[in-house]
UniProtKB/TrEMBL annotation:
Coiled coil: none annotated. This is Trehalose-6-phosphate synthase. The chain crosses the membrane at residues 167-189. The keyword Transmembrane helix applies. SUPFAM superfamilies: UDP-Glycosyltransferase/glycogen phosphorylase. GO terms for molecular function: alpha,alpha-trehalose-phosphate synthase (UDP-forming) activity. One of its GO terms (biological process) is trehalose biosynthetic process. Belongs to the glycosyltransferase 20 family. CDD domains: GT20_TPS. The keyword Isomerase does not apply.
Length: 752
């Protein structure tokens, strides 16, 4: 309901201009009315004068020859008792005024003014005001007796005109008020009706199912309104999310809004890998953006993380159920390992996930390979992990966080066995356009599997859009574009973009100062203290644009020879999926390119590119981030790329430049980076040079803005947004099922 003050304001906003317009119109019409009035009154006076003259004519025909002055004056005095007749006079044929009333105006002579004018009277301006003068000639038996002059007062016309003006103005005023009020009342009635209609439609699916239909004139507006509403809701939500920027807030959100204290994460890659070394069992953290992000969430929320036990010492440290508390030494959640046979790992992980889905989703010009045998393993392993989820769940409605392209089928498998679970699936890699995705022989199965989720998240709006289009093309579903939901088999899935991020490091987490890191790293590499350094951190993967990056380094050295001997690029490259041909070939190409460039520009102990193709722990990588002038992220296609965000987080000195590929999700957020097309080698070379030469003030300005963004939109916020949306969707589903229950009850047909 609109508050009364707002209504009054709106009414005045409409009524006042209308009244002003009508007032102006009324005011401008007054001179016209005056003229009309004058004409009417003149005609009236002409008639009156003619009648009066005819009345006086008879007695005057007797009295004038008799020179009966007394009788004439009596006659005249009686006549001017009429308030409008101002004076009477009589002129003899010689033009002499022989009889006149006392009121006769001095300035009104006889010779001049008594001359007969046109048929009617005429207006004469006298010092005391305008008068109307008529002249009638008197005759007796054909002999002229003289002229009777009647003088009428015109001042009443002015009085009348003033009265008319007042009258006209008040009529227009009353009219204006009446029109305004009627219009406002009608407008309010139709507005309310229209609003009720719009509200009905905007209530969305529920209202429509309950029998609401939009009137035809509303239809074009509905889409826009819904989109606006969703936008508004998202903005409002993101305001709420802003509060979820710390681990404790995320925990509270989970417990309060989802009433769940049970979080189950499913991913292929485990957060901690136990490996045998000559020194004993070592715990390693894998090179995986997914693991970096989700680990922070799990530390905050606790629960169970189900993953493939891939380390050669993994079995040695778990209990009988494959469980081990992690992080080692500070346990805050449980890691539940699932063991895979060689065949399973080969078909599901190497085959279907990494030779099929990975190249399918990345536009990096590597052909996807789909084998039926791989697909069978993929289905089987998804089922095994689904079994593990059901086995680990202590309640009927756990929150299950499913990670990535390894588990596209798992959401539906879990949904079938735990229908009340909240399943949040996040797709960490890009989603291609529908045509490209159509290559996958099991596209429908993949989509159906994913639609078992409550929430389905992508990094960017483009990937979300691509997914919606793909579903639209290959499955029979009901898609609500504005709400971004897909209804399939009676279940609703919300599809949204949630850009992932990192946990912002505490100030004290940076152990070594930037100058200390700079000095130490240069010393370790055998470089001079002022040597310029570039850094790249990736898995050895063909999607990362590592070859293009090195070509850019080469081109930069060509164009700016003064940089030869002054600049070194360090590439940390974690070996990845190395049993696959494509990855082995790629590693070989990378190594040979490095060698060629180093031969071309290296000399003595100087190497322009240092390739460190081995596993590095996060702390070691962090030292390089802090020591470098420039960080290069040149992915040919990437969901988000957290290296870009980690580099920014590491630079608390607000120095350093980030060269960032336009084909990463990160480029959608980090506008202050030097954004490049990695396929354009010259552009990459120029950006690298520009980053190295960037003035300190510019570095600080760019870094400050990016740091602010990454700090505010951190990983807790990413998870918080998904949990928020899941809670809302759960709520909506609860309401809808209540409505369905009531709707089925007798006597309750329509729910408004
Ligand atoms: C990408 C994927 C992750 C994966 C990571 C490392 O970031 O999205 O799911 O964990 O690469 O790859 P790997 O195959 O070694 O787990």
């Amino acid at each position: 309901m609109r508050p009364p003050l707002t209504s009054l304001r709106m009414t005045l906003r409409f009524v006042l201009p209308l009244l002003l317009v009508l007032g102006a119109f009324a005011y401008s019409s007054v001179p016209l009315m005056d003229q009309l009035n004058l004409r009417w009154f003149m005609r009236d006076l002409d008639l009156r004068s003619a009648t009066l003259a005819a009345t006086l004519e008879d007695p005057l025909q007797d009295y004038v020859p008799q020179k009966a002055k007394r009788k004439i004056m009596q006659l005249f005095d009686r006549a001017i008792l009429d308030e409008r007749l101002f004076a009477l006079g009589f002129c003899d044929p010689r033009g002499e005024l022989i009889y006149k009333t006392a009121t006769w105006p001095k300035s009104l002579g006889c010779a001049r003014d008594a001359a007969p004018g046109r048929a009617g009277g005429r207006l004469v301006d006298l010092p005391q005001g305008a008068v109307h003068v008529t002249v009638s000639t008197l005759q007796r038996e054909g002999e002229a007796l003289g002229k009777l002059i009647l003088v009428h007062d015109m001042s009443f016309i002015e009085r009348r005109s003033a009265d008319t003006r007042k009258y006209v103005m008040s009529v227009f005023l009353a009219l204006g008020v009446a029109i305004s009020l009627i219009t406002v009342v009608i407008a309010r009635i139709s507005w309310r009706g229209w609003l009720d209609g719009v509200r009905g439609v905007l209530r969305g699916g529920i209202a429509q199912r309950a029998g609401f239909t939009a009137s035809p004139e509303m239809l074009p507006l509905i889409g826009d309104l819904r989109a606006l509403l969703n936008e508004y809701q998202r903005e409002r939500l993101s305001d709420d999310d802003a509060k979820v920027s710390a681990p404790d807030k995320l925990r509270a959100l989970l417990h309060n809004e989802l009433a769940g204290d049970e979080v189950l994460v499913v991913s292929n890659r485990e957060p901690y890998i136990h490996v045998k070394t000559p020194e004993g069992v070592e715990v390693r953290r894998p090179a995986s953006g997914l693991v970096t992000a989700v680990e922070a969430v799990m530390r905050a929320c606790s629960g169970t993380w189900i993953a493939h036990g891939a380390g050669n010492a993994d079995r040695d440290v778990v209990d009988a159920h494959g469980r081990v508390p992690v992080p080692p030494g500070h346990s805050s959640y449980t890691l539940r390992r699932v063991w895979l046979s060689k065949e399973e790992e080969q078909g599901y992980y190497y085959g279907f996930a990494n030779e099929g889905m990975w190249p399918l989703c990345h536009i990096a010009h590597v052909r996807p390979i789909f084998r039926s045998s791989d697909w069978e393993q993929y289905v089987a392993v998804n089922r095994r992990f689904a079994d593990a989820v059901v086995a680990e769940a202590r309640t009927e409605d756990p929150v299950v966080l499913v990670q990535d392209y390894h588990f596209a089928l798992l959401p539906r498998m879990v949904r079938e066995r735990l229908p009340r679970a909240t399943i949040i699936t996040f797709w960490h890699i890009p989603w291609p356009n529908s045509e490209s995705f159509g290559i996958c022989p099991w596209r429908a199965e993949i989509l159906e599997g994913m639609l078992g989720s409550t929430i389905l998240g992508f990094h960017t709006p483009l990937h979300r859009r691509n997914f919606m289009d793909t579903v639209d093309r290959y499955l029979e579903t009901r898609i609500e574009e504005e709400a971004s939901t897909i209804s399939y088999g009676g279940k609703l899935t919300q599809v949204q973009s949630y850009p992932i991020s990192i946990a912002w490091p505490e100030a004290e987490a940076q152990t070594d100062s930037v100058p200390a890191c700079r000095a130490a790293i240069r010393r370790e590499l055998g470089l001079a203290p002022d040597h310029l350094l570039g850094i790249g951190v990736d898995r050895l993967d063909y999607t990362k644009g590592i070859l293009e990056r090195f070509q850019a380094v080469e081109r930069m050295l060509e164009r700016y020879p003064e940089m030869v001997g002054r600049f070194t690029f360090v590439q940390i490259a974690a070996p990845s999926r190395s049993s696959l041909d494509e990855y082995q070939n790629f590693e070989a190409r990378v190594r040979s390119l490095v060698q060629r460039i180093n031969v071309r520009f290296g000399s003595g102990g100087y190497l322009p590119i240092v390739l460190k193709a081995e596993h590095h722990e996060h702390e070691a990588v962090n030292r390089y981030y802090r020591a470098a002038e420039v960080c290069m992220v040149t992915s040919l296609h990437d969901g988000m790329n957290l290296v870009a965000k980690e580099f920014i987080a590491a630079r608390d000195d607000e120095r350093g430049a980030l060269v960032l590929s336009q084909f990463t999700g990160a480029a959608m957020e980090l506008h202050a980076a030097l954004i490049i097309n990695p396929y354009h080698i010259e552009q990459g070379a120029e950006a690298l040079y520009r980053g190295l030469m960037m003035p300190a003030a510019e570095q600080a300005e760019r870094m400050r803005s990016m740091r602010m963004l990454v700090r505010d939109f951190n990983v807790y916020r990413w998870a918080g947004r998904m949990l928020h949306d899941a809670a809302r969707l759960r709520q909506r589903e609860r309401v809808m099922s209540k409505i369905a229950e009531h709707g089925a009850a007798p006597g309750l047909r329509r729910v408004v």
